[in-house]
Every structure is written in structure tokens, then in C-alpha cells.
Amino acid sequence: MHAVAITRPGDPDVLVYQSWDMPTCGPHDVLIRVAAAGVNGPDLAQRRGVYDPPPGASPLPGLEVAGDIVAVGAEVSQWQLGDRVMALTNGGGYAEFVAVPAGQVLAVPAGWSLAEAAALPETWFTVTQTLVMRAGLQPGMSVLVHGAAGGIGGAAIQIATILGARAIAVVSAPHKADYARDLGAFATINTAEQDIASSVLALTDGVGVDRVLDLIGGAMTAINIAVSARGGHIVQVSTLNGADAPVSLRTLMAKQLTLSGSTLRPQTPATKAAIASHIRTHLLPALAAPGFVKPRITCFPIDRAADAHRAMEARGHIGKLVLVTPFGAK
């Protein structure tokens, strides 16, 4: 098969589309013929040499795919040859074939193309694990979503909306605010024109938000603490603007706040399967409902993975970036 390999740590040009050995389908795995693979922040970190794959994982980048099943492990009963699926991988998604533990696989929603489905697993698993299962997002809660026009932010808006919570989207431009509202945000804050803290307090009658999903880190942490309601929970899923942050412990204590962080890739197969089960039961039916707004995707041929990484690093895109293989282009 062909795959995108990281030839050495560095800039996007180190990504090379080349011949690669076929993956082995273990007894608890399915082998997926990849039509499309999503591009995510951890892929960029791995390419730079600062986010190594876990032991036993493929050295190839790529944490989410969609395609059809071409082989089924001896211990797998829930999937069959030919099933159209999307999956959270443990690496190896930038390829024509990838082996995935069966518990991390989901059916493609009705009405979705494989390229559209490939943009879902990594972000929806991340938000479901952190904001829903760990932070306990409930109907009626308010949630501040940073980076709301990107992949994780867009997933957070839609998951919150499906569960009956109200998402306040933080964006950097009017067209991104429009996109966030299309996804279901009940209010938006444009940081080019509005102050986050005063805007949140105005939108919540001075109470603050129940939950925060943050990808920014750094100085944003103090703002998140300031706008959180008593008993609130701040979920940290990335640190795009800084891994260190000044934190007022007195405010954390006085407001009885929780600040939690997590990374998805090192989680156990059992944990990832539990997240998949939660998505399958509580979220997936909504994706096939009439009128559901699909996240926006921008597609690149898989042999132009370097261009996709450059586009993501520029931070100007909306939605998700997706690599399309020769199988997906047909």
C-alpha cells in the first residue's frame, strides 16, 4: 500500500507519500480500506517530534479515518466485510489501509459521505471523553467553547446542542461566528471586537458558565476561571498559546472549580471503546436526523498531506481538513 510517512521531525515537507507495508489485522481488529483521513493537532505535534506514538502503535500519523471493512479479526463479531465505517485509530490513518481495534469503530451516519465521516472521530471522541463523560455536561448547562470554528470547537458546539446544553462560541472573525451559529451555538463572542469576560457575564446574567472547553491555555486560563460559575468545570484539551498559566488558587477554591486535562491517544482500548459506545448510544442518532448541519470540511489528496498541515498551522481554516485517498476519490 501507500502511506504518508514522517521521514524526520520537522516542517510539513518531511511528510512523504511512499510505499509501506500493509498493517496486520489482529484477532480483535478490523482492517479498513481508507477512503479519507482527518487531520488533527496531534498529527502536527507528531510530525514536529513532540508527540510520540504510544508503545505498539503505528509510527504513521493519522488518528481518524472512514472507509469500508476488508478484513475482520477472528474475535470480532459486531462488524462484517463491506461495512461503511468511521474509526478512531491508534495511528496509521494517513494510509490506504489501517487496522483498528473493533471497539473504536462506528457506523457512518446515513447521508454522510466517507470524507465527511472521516472528520468526526478524533474530535467527537475527545469532546465526549472530556466534556461529557468526565465533566458531566448536562441539559440546561452553559458551556464556553474556545476555537469554536475549528474541529474540536465545532464538535463541542454540536455535542452540547444535542445534549440540550447552550454553547457560547468564542471566535476571531464574523464569518467564523456565522459558522458557529450554523452548528448550533446560541451566542458568539468575536474576540476582535468583544471582551470575553464581560461578554460571558452579560450572557449569563452575571453568573458565569457551567463548563469551559479550552484549547488555548496560557493567559486564557485566568479568563476561564473568571467567567466560570460556582461549581464550574474547565476542560483543557490543548495549549495552543502556552503550556504554562498563572492560576489563582484562591479563586479556584472560592468558586469550587475543577480544572481537568486529558489526552486521548494514550487511553486504553477499553476506555476508547467506552467512549465509542457513549457516542453510538447518545449522539450518533442525531447525526442522521433531517436538518443536521454537517461540519465543514476541506479536502486534500493524500499525497498533498504537507499542504494540509500548512493550512492547519495557518489557523485560518474553518471546520476540518481531510485527506482523500485514491479509494475515496473514485
Short synopsis of the structure:
By secondary structure, the chain is of the alpha/beta class. The protein is 31% helix and 26% strand. The chain is built from twelve helices and 15 strands.
Describe this entry's structure for a reader.
This protein is of the alpha/beta class and 330 residues long. It is built from twelve helices and 15 strands. Strand 12, helix 8 and strand 13 form a beta-alpha-beta unit. The two termini are 17 Å apart. The mean pLDDT is 96.
Helices, strands, pairings?
Layout: E1 2-6, E2 15-19, E3 29-39, H1 41-48, E4 64-72, E5 84-88, E6 97-101, E7 105-107, H2 114-117, H3 121-134, E8 142-145, H4 151-162, E9 166-171, H5 174-183, E10 187-190, H6 196-203, E11 209-214, H7 220-227, E12 228-236, H8 249-255, E13 258-261, H9 269-282, H10 284-287, E14 297-301, H11 305-313, E15 320-324, H12 326-329
Parallel strand pairs: 8-9, 8-11, 9-10, 11-12, 12-13, 14-15
Antiparallel strand pairs: 1-2, 3-4, 3-6, 3-15, 4-5, 5-7
Helix pairs in contact: 3-4, 3-9, 6-7
Keywords summarizing the entry:
six-stranded parallel sheet, alpha/beta, seven-stranded mixed sheet, 330 residues, globular
Q: Strand content of the residues, in percent?
A: 25-35%
Average pLDDT, all residues: 96
Q: Counting H and I runs of at least 4 residues, what is the number of helices?
A: 12
Order of helices and strands: EEEHEEEEHHEHEHEHEHEHEHHEHEH
What is the molecular shape?
globular
Q: What Rg, in angstroms, do the CA atoms define?
A: 19 Å
Low-confidence stretches: none
What's the story with the biggest beta sheet? Answer: 7 strands, mixed
Distance between the termini: 17 Å
